Amino acid sequence: MKRALFSLGLSALTLSACTSGVSSHGGPATSSEAKVAAPPVAAQAAATPIPARDVTTAAGLGVVRGPQIATLQVDARKTALALDSFRTSCPGLVRRTDTSGLTEGSDWLTACDAAKIWTGDAISFFAEYMDAVQVGTGRAFATGYFEPEIAGCRTRQAGCDVPVYKRPSDLIDVDLGLFSDELKGRNIRGKVNGTKFVQYDDRAAIENGSLAGRGLEIAYASDAIEFFFLQIQGSGRLKLPDGNVMRIGYDSQNGRGYTGIGKLMRDRGLITDASMQGIVAFLRANPEEGRKIMQENKSYIFFRELTGAGPLGAMGYPVVGEASIAVDVKFIPLGAPVWLSMDRAEPNGIWIAQDTGGAIKGANRIDTFWGAGDRARQIAGGMAARGTALIFLPKAAVARLGL
């Protein structure tokens, strides 16, 4: 998803962006879970990251060997969830081209074959078939995202009139690498206007009716603010008048840059609490100013109805609460396990990189997925954790890297 999902965290609407949300697992963090954090990897690994000229990928930034996986402190329940999500990711993992420079698809074959028949505990599996590595300094920053549920309807009616649009047919994706080798890996979106390729309509234009009358509405939301936050998450659920639920997921994005309104509002002195709760309180107290502020985030998400398993992450597989994360694929291979040791208990442990996000950029930048419901909303909305990240790679890949 996250091909355009956005997370919340302190940077709540400030830094992140993601795709999905499915069921939440487990209850509140317990005192035993609070003890799972291990010392920062920098203290455990004596090596120093390799100096590099190209710092746009993990391989270029520098990679060092981390501690033995079996020595890492983890929660057994969450580690089992991670192993299940790793199994789910395997079909795509062995076929993907890894832009981080760390692995090749064939590197994962042994681990993926073993995962099919593994019956032991999850941490032993990861220790048997993988080694931990640290990218750059290993310093990590994590936010959170979730699958919201808001009031909506399939057909427009009084009190339910905020359009939920599908992808317009005139929205065009352009692979710039087809025009220049120097632009390989870069893509833009826009539309054709006469003989020119121009930017697509921004949020303000769309909300003011630029797409109206084209039959693009797949549903309607009851509350513009709630729908704005659902767009930031990249997927969600519409609670219909008859009690049924319509699940919608990311279909595309208008190609405009994402602006985190939390930071924008804090920088202007409008709020001191940049959590989701603090932002919403201001928007509701100041509806006209709030509408204009939301429109300063020119990014706009288009949706499709989800009828199968989901929400789906960037790999095309369902993301799972407390198991799936969104990452920057130039620094973490999609499908790879990632271990976090942070300054708060909830995100500690092993996750699987199954998603991406428009604002999830850079080494060890993580967006943790928490599922759906009030607990997921509360944790994701306040998540802003700092600490250390390790990536688990197949032993063959680690050997090829010379670690």
Cα separation of the termini? 33 Å
Instruction: Tell me the quaternary state.
Output: single chain
**Based on the structure given, which CATH architecture of the largest domain is correct?**
Beta Barrel
CATH 4th-level superfamily of the largest domain: RlpA-like domain
CATH class of the largest domain: Mainly Beta
Describe the global form. Answer: globular
Looking at the structure, the CATH topology of the largest domain is Barwin-like endoglucanases
- Strand coverage percent: 15-25%
Instruction: Give a quick account of the main beta sheet: strands, pairing sense, barrel closure.
Output: 6 strands, mixed, barrel
Q: Which regions are unreliable across 5 or more consecutive residues at pLDDT < 50?
A: 2-53
Along the chain, the helix and strand elements come as HHEHHHEEEEEEEHEHEEHHHEEEEEHEH
Portion of residues within helices? 10-25%
Protein traits:
single chain; alpha+beta; Barwin-like endoglucanases; 2 domains; 24% helix; EC 4.2.2.n1; cell wall biogenesis/degradation; hydrolase activity, hydrolyzing O-glycosyl compounds
Q: Could you provide a short overview of the structure?
A:
It comes from Sphingorhabdus wooponensis. The chain is of the alpha+beta class.
